[in-house]
Predict the structure.
Amino acid sequence: MTTVAPQVEIGRSTLGESVPRKEDRRLTQGQGVFVDDVKRHGMGYLHFVRSPYAHAHIASIDVSRAEEIKGVYGTLTGEEVAALTDPFFQIAGAPGGQIKDFSLAVGKVRYVGEPVVAVVAETRELARDASELVEVEYEPLPALVDARKALDPEAPVLHDDAGANLMWEGVYEWGDLDAAFAEADRVVRIPELHFHRFNSTPLECDGALVEYNRGTGQWTIHTNNQFPGFAAIMMGPAMRTGLDKLRFVTQDIGGGFGNKITSHPQLVVCCLLARKLNRPVQWTEWRTDFHLSMSHGNERWFRETEVAVKDDGTLLGFRTKALDDAGAWLRYEPLGGVIWAQVTPGMYRWRNIRVDFTQVATNKAPVSPNRGYSRMQHLWFTERVIDIVARELQLDPVEVRKRNYVRVEDMPYETPNGCVYDSGDYAQMLDIALDLIGWDSMNDRRADAAARGKRLGVGIGSTLDSGTNNFGQSRLINPELQFSGNNEVATVKLDIFGEIVVTLGTTPQGQGHETTAAQVVAEILNCSVDDVHVRAGHDSYWNSHAGFSGTYASQFAVTGLSAVKGATEMLAAEIKKLAGAVFGGVPADALELADGGVRIKESPDAFLPFMACGAIINANNAGLPDDLGVTLNCRYVYRPPFQVPDVERKFGNLTLTYAAQIHVAVVEVDPETGYYDIVDYAAVDDCGKRINPQIVEGQVMGATAQALGAAVHEVFSYDEDGNLLTPNFYDYHVPHALDMPRLQTGYVESPSPFTPLGTKGMGEGGGAGIHAVCAAIQDATGAVVTTSHNPYHRVWELLEETA
Amino acid sequence: MEVTVTVNGTAYERDVEPRKLLIHFLRDDLDLTGSHIGCDTGNCGACSIIVDGVLVKSCMLLAVQADGSEIETVEGLADGDRLTELQQAFSDHHALQCGYCTPGMLMSATALLRANASPSDEEIKKALQGNICRCTGYWNIFEAVKSVAR
């Protein structure tokens, strides 16, 4: 790996150092606790009976043969669910908000793999066998698979309650489009671009172990859901219960990438069955179940795009019609209809933009957040536009980018829709990336490839990883919603023997929160990272969570670590206050924390170790001043500085930070077959202050690998009847060790002026690899690349187009 | 059916259903939850273990097929608290994030290094190609294994 020198000085102590991860010891020994590792006496295993049809009426359900089997504990049907629960709260207003979404299909199925009945039995195998005995009679209906046909008058309608397949639509317009197009030398027209359906397929599927306490009426939900705060507000009202009755517990989570946000329907089924059967219920999704039903990424079309440009490549504005395929249910949608607006202009200075956004339902699995959620689709679009414009104007894509990038001197930069890009130098990042792949010698390499019968192509992906959501953006979707801002919680305490104990509200899935949180605590308490004990996982019993707690949307380095910083600073102040009293009235500014304790600066022998502090407050506190106000148990809620966006103008800052990525891919295409290799790859990242560079680089690599997989191989494709053609890892090819190209990484550190540590949320990377590969294929083949998914046969088609 | 196996040096005897997969036997019957399940189709390698010296995916075997065998799993790698060189290298090189694929990766790499202490770059990648990781992109896993190779 190549690393490029930082632009800002790294701070003292361990902030900015790659300290070893605390998590690794247990995880390398197989001692992690993942959800399927949790067991309880007498638990039953849950298996879902799923729809074999994309669209059908349920004529009848008969569970009697399944229930007769010895060892089968019981079943749950949609009819029971409809009686015991209310439909899930809908984020959308009308028409999408009128649909009635329950945790099992009621009356009708709307995609292949939709859960229809749940069966619980003594063993996994028995539950699966018994599911085969559940008799469901279906009356098949025509299926809607192509979102572009969803609004045709003859299209089958999924949800009668909504009247049609339109779920949400909205017009976003900023600037003066007429003036921009009048000023333009050229209007570049792009009939249709398509962003395909895939997701990050975390290696661990979804799951839960749910216990019901009959005496207190409380459910304990051991799960790998990555956003318990969201699950709670979905589940509580549906289950007609207060949130105090829903205890969420996680420890190690085997990857999430957004795909584990919307498991609330399955969790409700587990809860209902744990109560009905009076025993713990265990559910672990099978791989095929996951592929059929869980959190596909948003599939999106951009149609009738028009771009206003000057002959020199100056971008004035664009208009497009975005069509989003939500699948069968709105589980987190239609938030994808606004999330993209966090990065409306991409990295560019165009000021006049109109997007007509339409989201429709289809007979496919529901979409939900997937790494780079909704911004990735939009940034792929803006990058495609740049390269198509460059091609049409016969300009160098590098020069078009540099001419139009938001400049370092523009920072902080307010976009046309009111988002404030906090810092960064995109042109410099591009230079670093080009340098890493050897841009200066590219003509020689093109010639060399040609001599070997190959076509070389170079492509750039410029993206933003907007992080720390302002949930007020949901009001641009539905002005009736009462969400805004964001929050995260940490507690830091000093226990009796001086143990420094940290509790987080987050639900990490490999991002090393225990480690980076400890680094921040150690920095403030002036102690060793090894002395800081960060509790693994999340437990809503700990009172260390808030409404938006979780791990999603690139925010831990801002929300999580700022909460840790706040709580630790409170603790440091309390330690000094206590020591001041113990030392007989020494003011706080005369004290300092060092060597695992607190001492008087001028006379360091006057030293009180943390152990003594913890012991005094917790176990030996008689005689302390009445008004001391010290607990050494500090809870801090970090609340980012947000305003409610202007709903009328669809204007406001939608996230707090805007980390940036520039990726460059070099491909060699075999013109005979369309097969191509990625022969060189550079990824340059700027996420502001890096607390632990090794962890940051790991996120950069992971996001890159997922993007390359999506660009070349991964797709959830359906046949015309709505059958998923890639329901397992045989058909859905994710990259293997042999697939990975040579990778060079570089970085720039532009601290965010808006966050307590100068950090920016990161980890999603906006799918830069997809954009870069598309651009490289366009460069190599000379054909306009119109889809985000370019397997070898697709590239062969492109070659045919230009032959 | 009666199944007798030795896992990481400990002998176990259990009555199991003939159709039970070896991975479910290890995880559910013996409570050795270090080996994981990621796919059900033999693609992902999260369940990789060593049976009688041979690297296998334990979701591709029935428990009864393992009767009489000596099994090694991730739980048996470290010597008490002392990590193997390979385990330590995984941490040093940040070769794991969520850690779900890690036990299988470690077993595959362990089997490789036993058979070939000086693998080439290509041999390392081939040895790992049966193990899927969705977090790291494999680059750091490769570096970790390479750092232990002689």
